[in-house]
Specification:
Structural class: mainly alpha
Number of helices: 42
Shape: globular
Radius of gyration: 29 Å
CATH architecture of one domain: Alpha Horseshoe
CATH class of one domain: Mainly Alpha
CATH topology of one domain: Serine Threonine Protein Phosphatase 5, Tetratricopeptide repeat
Helix content: 55-70%
Length: 787
């Protein structure tokens, strides 16, 4: 062993030589080669600032937070304060993080020091949900020095601000600066992509085929634990197609897996997993579609994730619900029952479904990589998605208890006193419940555990939710959920465009539980889709008689009646009377339905009262905010309207119908430059959407280009003859071109529907596997009809 003084001299001479090599090795995650170079630094009594920067990188890569804490307590340079602040952020000690980052900024000796401190402040503001402040700090960080870490943080902030295109650009620049940036690759592989796979295949041809071959080879290598091979194949695929989402996704998880191999907690994770007993869960072979194809290791981990809800697995399986564990190289739409998601994007954040890690619902999919990483105390995706399925089959009264707790949490939730486990948990009652169940089964590893979703935080933030989830975990008899589970098969048949089969499935569930509230509301929708007015009226009578104080029932009855021929004024009169009898947490559903009907009718001032009532119940309800924005625009309160539109777009960046409404109102307000920008952004989400096509035609008409407007409107009608707005614009374009007789002939069917008081109908769009309401003809469309 070298004596201390001799060792210090050697370190001083060789430090500069090794630092660059060590930094490169750490950057490329070659920890085996880096180990002999880092040992002298770890043994040094007083490593300098540059050497400590390397030591911190080594410790963070090994998830050795205790070592980071110990070292950062001994020194006060910018690099030490930044390391300590990172720990504080991981532990959500925001006050300490703020103090440390302020000191780091004060001590910044280089542009990089300043950039890193400002980045930390941006990440702190992000965690505090002050996204505008986060943007300010991150832009300042990038002005000091452009770093991949700041660009990736900027990506996440821009997503929250609804600036998806800018967010993608930031992540792309991050991986150009740092090809090994795990989180930036993760973002680009988690659905944040401009092109879908159909577009890539058509545009790239053989290059796409070659790249996807490399992706599948990388996926196989990942599952076999050959991480270097998986990494290299991903880099090769990205050299061919830099925006190939699956390559980014596999590369991100491969880089993570390389860190797992050296994680200081690895042995303890594996020991705990080995000691856990394999759960015995009835019906697991039916429920997990590819159960037999999983390795024993992954079978055990899946079973452990299902165990908290094991009583529900036979019920879900009996209703036809499933779970599928997909390999990383598989697109989500290639998984069983997921074909309808091909090329579609998620409404709330614009992500491409094909690239996300999984999907919940009647048929649930989770990636094999998430099953594996759960062994290492990472997020339990299987339990999260199963919790969604469980909530979908709960009896209505129990579901209302969850809604009541969610609303209580909403009332407590303030920037200075957050009441939710995560931003995601606060987004909807469904995520609130799923994150609660997940945290209840995820104890904190130690005080350095960086996860948001852990039991100890649920104890502190929402003990009532913990008590309810714990009670539900302990249930043995969940037979009351069987009829609701069976009705789920009806919902699945509707999704497939098979209303006759859906009615059969709902009828089976109703025979088992004729008065079940959730089964009745599902059947009402199926009857409305089938156009069975008598069936709707009979079931509506029974449902109101039994559940007349349920907002869910009242709203479903109103919608079904309107879509089967009951005039809107009569529907609204019945709804207004029924609203007086409501009690419980779902009354806002009736308020939203009433508000939407009043909006369609053209009575905006009254509609605003009901949208505001829904917002008093939940101040950030996307549906209520959307309706409020459209109603303010109907009343021509333009500045107020567009401010609310921006607010709701931050919550639902990928909702094409929302962007279409904003685009329509920008045109109505005469803000044509903004309208053109909005149209361009919306077409990135769905270039074939009929409403966007019709609005593009209207924009052309407003710009005095009637011939182009006519061409665009006719193109929309060729593929979507049901699009009333396209018919209206066609009529106006023909009139502008002096073809009055043709114009009146074009809109005659609409005028007949209005005169006859015909209501809307449901129409199936097979390309999206959804039923859409057509022929609603709201006042903002009726007002456009030619005289």
């Amino acid at each position: 062993m070298l004596r201390p003084l001799v060792f210090a001299a050697v370190l001083a001479v060789t430090g500069a030589v090794h630092a660059t090599d060590l930094g490169t090795l750490l950057h490329k995650q070659d920890y085996q080669a880096a180990a002999p170079l880092v040992r002298p630094l770890l043994a040094a009594s007083t490593p300098d600032e540059a050497q400590r920067a390397l030591i911190y990188r080594w410790h963070f890569a090994h998830d050795d937070s205790a070592a980071v804490e110990q070292l950062s307590k001994r020194f006060e340079a910018a690099v030490d304060l930044q390391a300590a602040a990172r720990l504080a952020l991981d532990q959500r000690d925001f006050e300490r993080a703020q103090q440390l980052l302020a000191r780091a900024l004060d001590k910044a000796a280089t542009p990089l020091d300043r950039a890193n401190a400002l980045r930390g402040l941006g990440q702190l503001a992000y965690q505090q949900r002050d996204f505008d402040a986060s943007l300010h700090e991150l832009e300042a960080s990038l002005a000091a020095e452009r770093t991949a870490d700041a660009l990736e943080a900027l990506n996440e902030t821009l997503i929250r601000l609804g600036r998806t295109e800018d967010a993608i650009q930031a992540a792309e620049e991050a991986v150009k600066l740092d090809p090994y940036h795990e989180q930036a690759h993760y973002q680009l592989g988690n659905g944040y992509s401009r092109r879908n796979y159909t577009q890539m295949a058509a545009q790239e041809g053989a290059k796409f085929t070659e790249a996807m071959t490399l992706v599948h080879r990388a996926s196989d290598a990942f599952e076999q634990g050959r991480f270097e091979a998986a990494r290299d194949d991903c880099f090769a695929a990205l050299a061919l197609l830099p925006d190939l989402g699956r390559a980014h996704a596999i590369l991100a998880r491969t880089l993570e897996a390389q860190r797992f191999k050296v994680d200081v907690h690895r042995a303890a994770y594996e020991r705990r997993f080995a000691q856990a007993a394999m759960p015995n869960i009835e019906g697991i072979e039916r429920y997990v579609l590819n159960w037999q194809a999983l390795t024993p290791r992954h079978q055990k981990r899946v079973a452990l994730s299902l165990q908290p809800w094991k009583a529900y697995i036979p019920v879900l399986a009996e209703g036809g619900a499933t779970l599928y564990i997909k390999p990383m190289g598989m697109l989500l739409s290639e998984a069983p029952h997921m074909q309808a998601l091909k090329d579609l994007r998620i409404e709330y954040d614009s992500r491409l479904w094909d690239d996300v890690r999984g999907a919940g619902g009647y048929h649930t999919v989770t990636g094999i990589e998430d099953v594996e990483r759960t062994i290492f105390d990472r997020y339990n995706t299987v339990l999260h998605e199963l919790s969604h399925q469980v909530q979908s089959v709960l009896p209505a009264d129990l579901d209302r208890r969850i809604e009541a707790l969610y609303q209580k949490a909403k009332s407590r939730d303030k920037p200075a006193q957050m009441a939710f486990l995560s931003r995601y948990a606060g987004g909807s009652v469904f995520e609130y419940f799923a994150e609660g169940a997940n945290s209840a089964d995820s104890p904190r590893r130690d005080r350095f555990d960086p996860r948001e979703i852990v039991r100890e935080r649920l104890v502190a933030l929402d003990p009532e939710l913990l008590a309810l989830v714990t009670q539900m975990f302990a249930q043995k008899d969940v037979s009351a959920s069987l009829p609701v589970a069976l009705s789920g098969a009806g919902g699945q048949q509707l999704e497939l465009g098979r209303p006759a089969q859906a009615l059969t499935a709902y009828a089976k569930a109703l025979r088992l539980a004729p008065d079940d509230e959730r089964v009745q509301t599902g059947m009402l929708r199926a009857l409305a889709i089938a156009g069975d007015r008598d069936g709707v009226n009979e079931l509506a009578r029974r449902a109101i008689e039994k559940h007349g104080r349920s907002g869910r029932v009242i709203a479903a009855v109103a919608d079904a009646r309107w879509h089967t021929g009951t005039p809107l004024p009569m529907v609204l009169a019945q709804l207004r009377e029924a609203r007086l009898r409501l009690q419980g947490e779902d009354g806002y559903l009736a308020d939203l339905t009433m508000a939407q009907g009043l909006y369609n009718q053209g009575t905006g001032s009254q509609a605003l009262l009901f949208f505001d009532a829904a917002l008093r119940y939940q101040a950030d309800s996307p549906e209520a905010l959307w309706g409020r924005a459209a109603t303010l625009a109907q009343l021509e309160r333009w500045d107020e309207a567009f401010a609310v539109y921006e607010q709701v777009l931050r919550l639902r960046t990928g909702l094409v119908a929302l962007r279409a409404d904003q685009l329509r109102d920008l045109i109505r307000a005469g803000r044509l430059d903004q309208a053109r920008t909005q149209l361009k952004e919306a077409l990135l989400l769905d270039p074939t959407d009929p409403s966007l096509g019709a609005l593009g035609a209207r924009l052309a008409l407003e710009e005095k280009n009637a011939a182009d407007a006519l061409t665009q409107a006719e193109a929309v009608l060729a593929r979507a003859p049901w699009c009333d707005l396209a018919v209206i614009i066609k009529g106006r374009a023909l009139q502008a071109l002096g073809r009055a007789d043709e114009a009146h002939a074009a809109v005659a069917p609409l005028r007949y529907r209005i005169k006859a008081g015909s209501g809307p109908q449901y129409l199936y769009r097979p390309e999206q596997s959804v039923w859409v309401s057509v022929h609603e003809l709201p006042s903002v469309e009726r007002d456009l009809l030619i005289d």
